[in-house]
TrEMBL record, chain B:
Protein name as annotated: Proteasome subunit beta
Functional note: Component of the proteasome, a multicatalytic proteinase complex which is characterized by its ability to cleave peptides with Arg, Phe, Tyr, Leu, and Glu adjacent to the leaving group at neutral or slightly basic pH. The proteasome has an ATP-dependent proteolytic activity.
Cytoplasm recorded as keyword: yes
Catalytically driven reaction(s): Cleavage of peptide bonds with very broad specificity
InterPro entries linked: Ntn_hydrolases_N, Pept_T1A_subB, Proteasome_bsu_CS, Proteasome_sua/b, Proteasome_suB-type
Recorded GO CC terms: cytosol; nucleus; proteasome core complex, beta-subunit complex
Record key words, sorted: Cytoplasm, Hydrolase, Nucleus, Protease, Proteasome, Threonine protease
Family: Belongs to the peptidase T1B family.
Organism phylogeny: Eukaryota, Viridiplantae, Streptophyta, Embryophyta, Bryophyta
Active-site residue list: 17 (nucleophile)
Keyword check for Hydrolase: yes
Compartments, as annotated in UniProt: Cytoplasm; Nucleus
GO molecular function: endopeptidase activity; threonine-type endopeptidase activity
Quaternary data: Component of the proteasome complex.
Length: 275, 227
């Protein structure tokens, strides 16, 4: 085989879509794509009188199986900004971590508190560059010098700026609660009540969402992260005697002990010093 | 098939849309509906599809929401620099040419139909249509989006040159309302932006204030759920 004289130019950056074509071809031939961990999800956000309230359920699924009954879907972006993530769990985790790091550097460079639109622009340009292959649908909320902000970010890189937003497979159930109960200038208690009701609507009516309700309330003064604010799905049965397996419960059929020390020999040089 | 696979949440975010812009005696009026869909679900029922490029030039967006937002962000950035370098307000022709360059040079990746309209002191009000392939067309009036199909015949009959501002505005509101009535992918409220020598004026027509046509029923207010 002759060597090619053309120098291999490394890709300049951005996604190479070659393997996507191979994957589609393999799928057409009958191969099954591995099931990735998705957060089926109900995520919501709303603007109230003093700031923003974000809410999320806590179920993560791998195909039809619930792989995590209590995962965290409200991610940290900045001291005054948080982001709920729906879609592929790896994508939401990594894109929010990446933007969070970029925001720290930006804060050092500007010497100011981060603004929500900065996080929004960083997220949307990254997602657009990957043309929807990064499957992250986010509800981004925070309070900065210009006031409270709430945005919905879609996997292809488009954004919506709204007073209340829902995303994920449970978004329709949650939106029905918001559309009937939302009004402007809600108090914090009213807002928390409506957000939990919306998440519960997703938990009980959508198969992809379940378990507990997480809330995050962001105001000018501070951010309150209420992990497992509501737990409407307690374990319904627990054995009265408890779960305790004393020695003797399991029969031991045979025992074999292998000394590893025999297989390790120092051939030359000093044996590793022990300090 | 996965029980959680939802077409409406996984489909790309697109603006089915009805957008239009007309020239009148003294300026331009841009109009748009406010519905953004992901598949068959209405993701945003109050979106703003008329975005500012400069103080005197605005852009109506249709098609893929992501593509049109990115194009408008780039053009706003370039025009900002251009205005600083030039020392004067950008002309509508410059803005539309920039939009056309982006649309045409990236035609294989983009799926967005745009209308650029504004006022400058050389041409007065001007409207430029930039449909899918990246053609640049100066027109007295332009429509775009899925709802525009229902407006061609209507505008052929109803549009006249040299209208007053009130006539032009009434025409825009009536057209968008007609398109909303027949196109499933258009709906919500009607937003208009009037640009002339004096400046820019934004107007908002709520759904229940729009004119009703053949066999349309007047909306009844639904009581807010009392808790």
């Amino acid at each position: 085989m002759t060597k090619s004289n053309v120098m291999e130019v490394p890709p300049k950056g951005g996604f190479t879509f070659d393997l996507c074509r191979r994957n589609t071809m393999l799928q057409q031939q009958g191969a099954k794509l591995p099931k990735f961990r998705k957060t089926g999800t109900t995520i919501v956000g709303l603007i109230f009188k003093d700031g923003v309230i974000l809410g999320a359920d806590t179920r993560a699924t791998e195909g039809e199986i619930v792989c995590d009954k209590n995962c965290e879907k409200i991610h940290y972006l900045a001291p005054n900004i948080s982001c709920c993530g729906a879609g592929t769990a790896a994508d939401t985790e990594n894109v929010t971590d990446m933007v969070s790091s970029q925001l720290v550097l930006h804060r050092y460079a500007t010497g100011r508190e981060s603004r929500v639109v900065t996080a929004l622009t960083m997220l949307k340009s990254h997602l657009f560059r990957y043309q929807g292959q990064v499957s992250a649908a986010l509800v981004l909320g925070g309070v900065d010098v210009t006031g409270p902000h709430l945005h919905a970010v879609y996997p292809h890189g488009s954004t919506d700026t709204l007073p209340f937003a829902t995303m994920g497979s449970g978004s329709l159930a949650a939106m029905s609660v918001f559309e009937s109960r939302y009004k402007e200038n809600l108090t914090k208690e009213e807002g928390m009540e409506i957000v939990s009701a919306a998440i519960c609507a997703g938990i009980f009516n959508d198969l992809g969402s379940g378990s507990n309700v997480d809330l995050c309330i962001i105001t000018k003064a501070r951010k309150e992260y209420l992990r497992n604010y509501q737990q409407p799905n307690p374990r319904s049965y627990s054995r009265s005697k408890g779960y305790d397996f004393k020695i003797g419960h399991t029969a031991v059929l045979s025992t074999k002990i292998t000394q590893l020390r025999q297989h390790v020999q120092v051939l030359e040089g000093d044996a590793m010093e022990e300090e | 098939m996965e029980p959680m696979a939802c077409q409406w949440t996984d489909a790309p975010h697109s603006m089915g849309t009805t957008i239009m812009a007309v020239e009148y005696n003294g300026g331009v009026i841009l109009g748009a509906d406010s519905r953004t869909t992901t598949g068959v679900y209405v993701a945003n029922r109050a979106s703003d599809k008329i975005t500012e490029l400069t103080d005197n030039v605005y852009l109506c967006r249709s098609g893929s929401a992501a593509d049109s937002q990115v194009v408008s962000d780039y053009v706003r950035y370039f025009l900002n620099q251009h205005t600083i370098l030039l020392g004067r307000l950008a002309t509508v022709k410059t803005a539309s040419t920039l939009v056309k360059e982006l649309s045409y040079q990236n035609k294989s990746f983009l799926e967005t139909g745009l209308i650029v309209a504004g006022w400058d002191k050389y041409e007065g009000g001007s409207v430029y249509g930039i449909p899918l392939g990246g053609t640049l067309l100066r027109l007295p009036f332009a429509t775009g989006g899925s709802g525009s199909s229902y407006l061609y015949g209507f505008l052929d009959q109803a549009w006249k040159s040299n209208m007053t501002q009130e006539e032009a505005e009434a025409l825009v509101v009536k057209s968008i309302s007609l398109a909303i009535a027949r196109d499933g992918a258009s709906g919500g409220v009607v937003r208009t932006v009037t640009i002339n020598e004096e400046g820019v004026q934004r107007k908002f027509y709520a759904g229940d204030k729009l004119p009703l046509f053949h066999e349309e029923i007047a909306p009844r207010p639904t009581p807010i759920h009392a808790n």
